[in-house]
Structures are given as structure tokens and as C-alpha cells.
Design brief:
With 312 residues, this protein is an all-alpha fold. Helices cover 71% and strands 0% of the residues. The chain has one domain (3-297). Helix 12 (225-239) runs antiparallel to helix 13. It comes from Actinoplanes palleronii.
């Protein structure tokens, strides 16, 4: 496969996952601000912007500013609208590889973004975020249902899961900034789409240990960090069918494998005590994997810089 095609597929996976996860995070956090009169809107907005890599200056911040920066900014690939537009742009360069259903889904979603500001104004921001999640789910379903399990599919799924690890780590950082409270864990689980599954797994026993174990270590929930790392490692292994007699074939496999085993053999209590360093290590892992994958398979690229300028 041409490196240009592989790179486009990889970033389609990352951008669609980024759009969905950002929509989930924004939706739940904004609902929390509205529902809890004791929550400081300025502090909550600053925390969210900081976690998403957006530097802020002095001055009060409102939910409307957060929606504009993380939701509707067309120029930033770290916003919902910008990420979906970037996914469609990458799809234009590999239409001969993706199925027509996948292309039509991305193209229709892109053209629907023009209505986003009007939809937010008329129907509310939560309706827009629901639409983004629905379109991302359609995209994921069409990818799995209409694409052959060849190298193209592997690169797309690899990108999706690397982004999922990064976004889940960023999401968990909000727990630290919220002081480790139970409402914070509830927000995290809902942001990840994990609340109902968590309740069925632990019979409603919401505490730090169970929540951290579920979001970081669970083998069966596809949005957990461990599950995403496992899928990413499997994709990298399939891309290198002949690893040789010793070790693994690529730097990317070594980086992902170390991160996965570092989680797999760490207990939930250790995770709680070392949550900050663990999350920082996961974010660093995602950046290193991106660089290693780029060196191995693509033209030379660097990771997308989440900080796109200070906010006034």
C-alpha cells in the first residue's frame, strides 16, 4: 500500500474518534455545569480547556466559549467540526480504498457541518453532540461492515484506537482536577459511554477503585485504555507478519506493548495512587506511537499539536 494512502486511512480513524470523544466530553461536562448550581462555570471551563490542550489567559470563561473553541472551530483539527472536516479531507485522497458507503457517510457528515451553528442555536448544543455521536457510530459500523480486513482497515482501526487511548487519558485527567470526587467519576463514565455497562458489571458499586479499574483495565469494554491498546497492538502485529526470531519488528510495537503490559500487571489500588503519572505516560505513549508509525509507514509527519494558541 502507498504510504500516502496508509497515512490518510490512519488519520481518518483518529479524526473520527477525536470528534466523537470530544462531543461526548463536552456534552456531559456542559450538562454537569447546568445541573449542579455549586459548580463554578469558569473553573469547569478552564479545567476542560486545559485537559484538551488549550492554553487560557486570565478572564472568566463561559460554556459558550468552550463550545466555540472545542466544538465549532473549523480551523482546528482538535475541535469536533474541524476533526470531521479533516477526516473527510483525508478520505478524498483514498477513495479508491474505502468503500462507497464509508465515503458517502463522511461526505454527508461534512456537508451537514455547515448547519452546525444554526443547529446549536435552534435545537441546543446537546442535539448537535448527539448528531455527531450518531454519525461517528454510523461511520464505525460501515467501516467494519463494508471494508475488507486488509492493510487499509488495519491502519484505520489502528488510528482509531491510538486516539481512543489518548482521549480517555485526557478525560481521566479531569478527575484529578475535580479532586477525585464521586460525581467526577460519574461524569467520566457517562462521557465514555460506559455508565450502564459499569452498573451491570459492578452492580452499582461506584467508588474510585472500581471506576479506575473499568476505564483503564477492563478487557471487555472497547473504550477502556487496555482494550484499545490491545487492539492497536494486534493491528501493528498484523501489519508485520514476519517479525523474525526474537522480539518484535517495529518500535511502535515495543511502545504499545510496554504500555499494555504496564497496565495489565498493575493493580487498581496502584492505579489510584499513581493516576497522574500513569495518565501522563499514556499521553506520551500515544505521541511516541504516532511518531514511530509515521517513521515506519508514512512520509515524515509529526503529531498534531493540540495547543493552537492562547484564548483571550
Amino acid at each position: 500500500m502507498l504510504s500516502r494512502i496508509a497515512e490518510s486511512l490512519y488519520w481518518i480513524g483518529r479524526y473520527v474518534e477525536r470528534a466523537e470523544d470530544t462531543a461526548r466530553i463536552l456534552d456531559v461536562h456542559l450538562q454537569r455545569i447546568l445541573a449542579d448550581p455549586w459548580t463554578s462555570e469558569d473553573a469547569a471551563c478552564r479545567s476542560l480547556l486545559g485537559v484538551m490542550g488549550k492554553p487560557v489567559e486570565d478572564g472568566p470563561f463561559t460554556s459558550g466559549q468552550v463550545i466555540e473553541v472545542l466544538g465549532l472551530d473549523q480551523r482546528s483539527p482538535s475541535s469536533v467540526v474541524g476533526a470531521l472536516a479533516a477526516a473527510r479531507e483525508n478520505a478524498r485522497g483514498c477513495r479508491e480504498i474505502i468503500s462507497s458507503d464509508v465515503w458517502e457517510c463522511l461526505n454527508a457528515t461534512y456537508h451537514g457541518l455547515a448547519r452546525a451553528p444554526r443547529q446549536v442555536e435552534s435545537q441546543g448544543v446537546h442535539a448537535f453532540f448527539r448528531w455527531v455521536r450518531d454519525r461517528s457510530a454510523v461511520m464505525a459500523g460501515l467501516t467494519d461492515a463494508t471494508m475488507s480486513r486488509d492493510e487499509g482497515w488495519l491502519f484505520l482501526v489502528l488510528g482509531r484506537n491510538i486516539e481512543r487511548v489518548d482521549m480517555t487519558a485526557r478525560l481521566l485527567r479531569t478527575h484529578e482536577r475535580a479532586g477525585g470526587s464521586i460525581p467526577s467519576w460519574l461524569t467520566l463514565l457517562r462521557s465514555s459511554g460506559a455508565w450502564e455497562t459499569f452498573l451491570r458489571t459492578y452492580r452499582g458499586a461506584l467508588d474510585d477503585r472500581h471506576a479506575a479499574e473499568f476505564l483503564l483495565l477492563d478487557r471487555l469494554f472497547p473504550r477502556s485504555v487496555f482494550a484499545a491498546l490491545t487492539v492497536a497492538e494486534s493491528c501493528l502485529t498484523d501489519l508485520e507478519p514476519d517479525p523474525g526470531r526474537a522480539g518484535v519488528a517495529t518500535d511502535a510495537q515495543r511502545i504499545v506493548g510496554r504500555a499494555r503490559t504496564g497496565l495489565e500487571f498493575r493493580g487498581p489500588d496502584d492505579l489510584i495512587n499513581d493516576l497522574g503519572p500513569v495518565l501522563a505516560g499514556l499521553e506520551k505513549t500515544c505521541s511516541q506511537v504516532n511518531d514511530a508509525v509515521s517513521r515506519r509507514y508514512f512520509r515524515q509527519t509529526s503529531a498534531v499539536n493540540w495547543s493552537s494558541g492562547a484564548l483571550a
